[in-house]
Specification:
The protein has a domain of about 70 residues. The protein is built from three helices and no strands. Helix 2 runs antiparallel to helix 3. The protein is elongated and about 65 Å long.
């Protein structure tokens, strides 16, 4: 037995109500607040990625200078030098990964 209120017609579907949301002060005219919030989140994420990329490049450049100076020293700890070079390569990979995320794929 079916529930007395359950009907097959579209009348019940027409009774469903969805909240009407007014645009916020910082959202474009006619845009829903959710879209403005999503855009803000995307902008924040983009800024964080660009800032992270900048920091990684600085650290990579600094490591390059340290490695160059240490390479000139005859009494340098080779293990330390090898670890610094490995760290520099890891930074280079992180930079490449972040750049590929930030630069849109032109073939897509």
């Amino acid at each position: 037995m079916r529930h007395p209120r359950a009907r097959h017609g579209t009348r019940d579907a027409a009774r469903l109500s969805f909240p009407i949301l007014a645009p916020t002060a910082n959202s474009p005219i006619g845009a829903r607040p959710e879209m403005a919030e999503i855009e803000d989140n995307v902008d924040r994420e983009l800024f964080r990625n660009v800032e992270k990329l900048r920091q990684l490049r600085i650290e990579h450049r600094d490591l390059d200078e340290v490695i160059s100076r240490l390479s000139l020293d005859l009494h340098v700890d080779q293990l330390q030098l090898k670890r610094l070079k490995k760290r520099k390569l890891m930074l280079k990979d992180q930079i490449a990964r972040l750049e590929s995320q930030l630069i849109p794929d032109l073939n897509a």
